[in-house]
Design brief:
binds nicotinamide-adenine-dinucleotide; about 15% strand; alpha/beta; Rossmann fold; 7-stranded parallel beta sheet; two-stranded parallel sheet
């Protein structure tokens, strides 16, 4: 879909982004602002997650921010009269979901259900895009993983995301609330949380190379695919703009698969230096680890024309450049 078509879909559109001060949500808000949408960002700026006011610094267009916790706040004013709702308010940490499962239930299920309830009552015409995760598949039985793969999450986070997907399907079926679900893989880029590894391991790696410290790679042979955030944002927009995507749950990948050790080498090369140590997987992590993953995202590509455009090397370079200029705001 061309830039003109996206502009036609979103220029002047009234859009709400739940979790819009976070990593992916803020990149989406900036892009929608550039496309001429009227954007309302709702975010609780919860400690431990990726929300950061700095993420919207210098953003263009009509962006308004409401700081509110969607676990409790009345969500109706945030969805009433809106054409699109992107739900990126969630928590991503797999280990975090095991350490505090009830918090994960509230953040990933309660929030999604409250937003759907608000749509049912006050914005039945709004189109909802929900950010789910590859974690719903659990340990892959085959690679690449397509949407026919069994759904068998191996951590609490994956179970809650799957439940949230099911709420969207139910509200569509029973109440006609239109939606699309994207199962994202590891997403990286400017504005991600790099303080620690709560968002992805790559955050901690980025911080370490920027600070000139070695970072830890666990085992190193594991395969992953990564999506640069601009490509993930494009996918979210297309999920909303392409009529045929309505009602679907789609994998979003990043193209090639790469072993973690090779990824570490690519990061060090993009940084022009750095060091890492290979360590065994910590026990608690091993128990919920999914092993290798690589998304088959051909269904979404076929329906929407989407494809990832930013290569890994380019994405890592852009990400490092961003943090060299803005590091203090993320530590
Ligand atoms: N980053 C990834 O690699 C990745 C991969 C798969 C899925 N996802 C999903 O995409 C979504 C966005 O991820 P992200 O990486 O941008 O995370 P993030 O932590 O940077 O952003 C989430 C934002 O949601 C906000 N939020 C959480 N609970 C809230 C609540 N109750 N009320 C209001 N705001 C709330 C947080 O304050 C934060 O700003 C999440 O649902 C995540 O599970 C992300």
């Amino acid at each position: 879909m061309s830039e003109e078509t996206l502009r036609a879909a979103f220029a002047g559109a009234r859009v709400t982004i739940a979790g819009g001060l976070g990593f992916i949500g803020s990149n989406l808000a900036r892009r929608l602002g550039d496309l001429g949408a009227e954007v309302l960002v709702v975010d609780a700026l919860l400690p431990g997650l990726g929300g950061n006011r700095h993420n919207l610094d210098g953003a263009h267009g009509r962006l308004a921010v409401e700081v509110a916790d969607l676990r409790e706040a009345d969500a109706i004013p945030f969805v009433e009269g809106r054409e699109y709702l992107f739900n990126l308010a969630g928590q991503t940490s797999h280990q975090g979901s095991m350490d505090a499962p009830l918090d994960d239930l509230d953040l990933n299920c309660r929030v999604a259900l409250r937003l759907l309830e608000a749509c049912r009552k006050a914005a039945p015409e709004a189109f909802v895009v929900f950010a789910s995760t590859r974690q719903v598949y659990g340990k892959p039985h085959y690679l690449p993983v397509d949407e026919q793969h069994p759904l068998a999450p191996v951590d609490v986070n994956g179970i809650h995301k799957l439940a949230a997907e099911a709420y969207h399907a139910l509200y569509r079926e029973v109440y006609g609330v239109k939606s699309a679900v994207l199962r994202l893989t590891n997403t990286y880029g400017p504005r991600m949380r790099i303080k620690d590894a709560r968002q992805t391991f790559l955050g901690a790696w980025l911080r370490a190379v920027l600070e000139g410290r070695p970072f830890e790679v666990w085992e190193g042979e594991q395969l992953r695919d990564l999506t640069y955030v601009d490509d993930a944002v494009e996918a979210l927009l297309l999920a909303a703009a392409v009529t045929e995507a309505e009602g679907g749950a789609f994998n979003i990948g990043g193209g090639r698969r790469i072993a973690l050790k090779r990824l570490a080498d690519a990061l060090v090369a993009a940084n022009g230096g750095g060091d890492y140590v290979v360590e065994p997987f910590p026990d608690a992590r091993k128990r919920i680890d999914i092993g290798d993953y690589h998304a088959d995202d051909r269904l979404f590509r076929r329906i929407t024309g989407w494809k990832p455009r930013v290569t890994l090397n380019d994405g890592l370079t852009r990400t490092l450049e961003y943090y060299r200029d803005h590091l203090a705001a993320y530590l």
